[in-house]
Give the backbone structure.
Amino acid sequence: MKKILGLIIATIFILTSCGEKAPMDIINPDAEYKYFFWATCPHCQELNRIAESRDLYSKISIEKREVYQNTENREIFLQLIEELEPESDGVPFVYDTVTGKVAVGVKPALELMTSRLGQTPAVAEQSEKSKTQAEEENTASWASK
């Protein structure tokens, strides 16, 4: 928790002069993806520009919350961080509620948000199981040689 607060304070100092108009939140508690961002973060702005240019927010089930200016969203984000205990807790932060995966940063977040496009949640879960089974079979074949 102290690590998160220290990161927030340091980042506030650095990013207060960088920024555009704050992007709008999308509140959808049933969303498959939870996306947390700072309005003034250049990385978050880049991810938002890419997502908007690809019309991504209309293609996926997403909850998008700004956590720098909105204290309620920040509390939700900190609770999620505490619950998930991810390796990294910066922004942009995306949590896939179906697979349990977390991505931090522009490229990883974009990859996670687009990873199941065109798939139903059940198909996505099956794909994850198939990958795991294939890896186990590959490992088993190497072990038997």
